[in-house]
Structures are given as C-alpha cells and as structure tokens.
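Write out a record, focusing on structure:
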Amino acid sequence: MQAFKLYFKIFKRSALASMMIYVVIFGVIMIMYSSTAGNNVTTSFTAEKCKVAVINNDNSEFSDTLENYIEKRSASVKIKNDDQSIKDAMFFRKAEYILIIPDGYGEAFLNGTQMELKTKTIPNSTSGIFMDLMVNNYLKTFKLYKTGASNLSFDQIAANVKSDLAINTKVDLTKNAVNDQLSLQNFYFDFLGYPLICVLILGVAIVMNIINAKDVKRRNFCSPINSTKFSLQIFLGNAVLAIVIWALFSIYPLIVFRSKMLNFQGFFFFLNSFIFVLVCLSLSFLIGNIASKNAVNPIANVLGLGGAFLGGAFVPQSMLSDTVKNIAVIDPIFWFVKANDIIGSQTIFDAATTKPILSNMLIELAFAAAFLAIALVIIKQKRTSN
C-alpha cells in the first residue's frame, strides 16, 4: 500500500491546512446558528400605542367623545395649535399622528353632512395607517348606530360604540417545534453543499495535481508497483478521504438533531449528502487532472460560492426567479438542495413521496458519472501524449 500511504502523506503536507479552514468556519457558523435558532421567538402580540396629538377646534359633544376615545387608545401628546408647532412636532417625532377636528365637524357628522377630518402623519408610516383605521372604525360604528338605531340618544350610542370597540382579541403566536427543527435540518444540509464541494476540491484536486505532475509520474512508472495497482491505491485514497469528510460533517446533525435524524427523513438526508459527496469527488478528480496547483484554490472558491448561490444553498430556492432556476439546472448543488427541500417537507415516506427524491439523486449521480467520464478521457489523452 505504498501509493496509498503516499497519497495521505501528500494530503497531510499540501491540502490538510486548507481543508481545515473550511471545516472550522463551517462548524463555527453552524454552532452560532443553532445556538441562536429558536431564541427571541415572540409568542404573543401586543399593540403598541402611537404618539398622537388631537387638535379639537370644534369642542362639540361628538368631537369631545372622539377625542376622548383616541387619547385612551394612544399615547396622547399635547402641542400648540399653530403651523410651526405642528411641523416641529412631526419633524422631531414628538407626535407620529396629528388629528385636526375642524369647527362644526360634530354637527355636520350627526346631520349626515360631509366634512373631512384633517390629519398630519409621517409619510408611509405604519402608525399613520393604524390610526386612520382606528378613527374610521369609530366613525363607521357610530354612524351605523345613528342610522340603524335612531331611537337611541347620543349618550346611549356613544356608550354602545365605546363598549363595542373595547372588545379585544388575545393573539398567541404558536411555535411549532417540529417545523422549526426541520427548518434547521434543511438549513444545515442545504448549506452543506458549499463546504463539501470546497473541501473535496482542495483535498482531492491538490493531491491529484501533485501525483499527476510529469516528474512524479515518471518516477512512479519506474517503481516496482505496476500502474494498475498504483491507480487503485490512489482511487482508494480518494474514496477514504471523501468518506472521512462525509462522516465528519455527519457527526454534527447526529449530535444536535439526534432524535430527528434516526428516522427515514434523517436516512434520506444522509443518503443525499453521501451521493453529493460522490459528485464532489468526481468533480475534484476532474479538476485535479486539468488544473494547475495554484489554480485549485480559486476554482474551489468560484465553484463553491457560485454554485451555492445559484443552486439555492444560501438563498431558498423558493425565492429564486424562474430564470435563475432554469440556469441552475447545470449546477449539481441545485439538485442536491432540491432533494433536501423535498425530504424536509415530507412526513410520510412511501413509493409516491420518495420518487421525486430518488429522481433528484439520480440526476446527481448522472453529474458524478459525467465528471468522471470526462476525467478518464483527459487522463487517457495525457497518457497517450506522454
């Protein structure tokens, strides 16, 4: 097993340091993400009061009732009734919403005459929209009672409106622990496509590049080991390295998502990641036979980052445009992530639900076979030329 030992001796000296950088960075990112995931989750809703100033130029019974209603449902702010004070209040955010009730508004409203309320608000602010809804809700409810129950007095209508609008609904935002856990699994395995392709290219391609150097190859031809045994041992070295890297990245989900990984869903996640490792191994083998040693690192970064962004490892595929998806079909990470997303959305695994998963895995294997075939053709051409 001299060639096998030679493989890992070269790997230790030339590729281990570069690979460990990606392993450590990826590990830190996942630890940080998993430690913050699920924290700061809001499980209840509380409406915040807006800073509102009401300038009542009418001082009628109705306008006083409206003013009282708004002040109780907002953070009341007092400002002077002049243009400069109003502008200053809005500019310095002393008030987010200013309601100006014009003289005669109460009488006009009760008589059914059209008269508009004047409002000042911060442009495109949610507080302005919220307060407009509140005011309109009060006016519409009061008008409904005035029209439909004309036998009631003003005080009775005001009391009924106040009672109706005082009804509050408690809102609880429930957290589905299963879905949150699955989303974290999906994130891990989707993101895994980036470090896998970078790490294997840096490991396999660098070692293969050194072994395939002309002088090294000629010395190997002079050794007592025939070329077939030499190639098999190098192939074994590549396979062992790929399996070790896959196992290394598989330890984390087994520790963090243990209860969720020991089932059919976890099995398919691991199977898909293992198949993608084969794709990365074939691609790395191809790059190792065509690229120079100095070009391996840039190629790893370009293929890793470019493929991850295009394939949906960083941005969910649901957010990608149709144009990007049509281009991404040439990217093996796209099919890897697509299979992961299908796996993560399934709770029952039978012939019907596993068919699209296996279809994506077969496409990944097709990429692996294509990369390997191209690499073997290039090796044959180089051997013939040498």
Remarks:
- The beta strands are 51-56, 75-76, 97-101, 118-121.
- The CA atoms of residues 80 and 86 lie 7 Å apart.
- Residues 37-43, 175-182 have pLDDT under 50 and may be disordered.
- The first strand starts at residue 51 and ends at 56.
